[in-house]
Amino acid sequence: MVRVLLEELIPDDFHLHVSGRYHVVVGTWPTMRLRYISSFSSKSEVIDAVLCSMAVPGFVAAPLYSPHSGWRGFYVDGGHVSFGVKCVPAVGLSGVL
Predict the structure, then answer these.
(1) Assigned domain for 25 exists
(2) Residue 81's pLDDT is what?
(3) Which end of the chain, C or N, has fewer beta carbons within 10 A?
(4) Where are the alpha helices (DSSP H) in the chain?
(5) Of 18 and 94, the one with more pLDDT
């Protein structure tokens, strides 16, 4: 359903406008390493990257497969991968926290 909506809304030359400027963060499956995708050769590649970035295993979807040569493999939501990142207080704000 989301794919159909994106295919209808996104112009055919969208990848030409966003390649190198738009970054999609995904996590590799099963190693759970972050990967930043910013080079797109087609509209469908942009859509696939966005859909992979929305795949939360066990909640929304299973890991999604990307057939694209630059980033072939299984991917999940990049935010899901980085949940364990700890925040460090900014200098001078440690008394506030």
Answers:
(1) yes
(2) 62
(3) N
(4) 2-9, 14-18, 43-53, 78-81
(5) 18
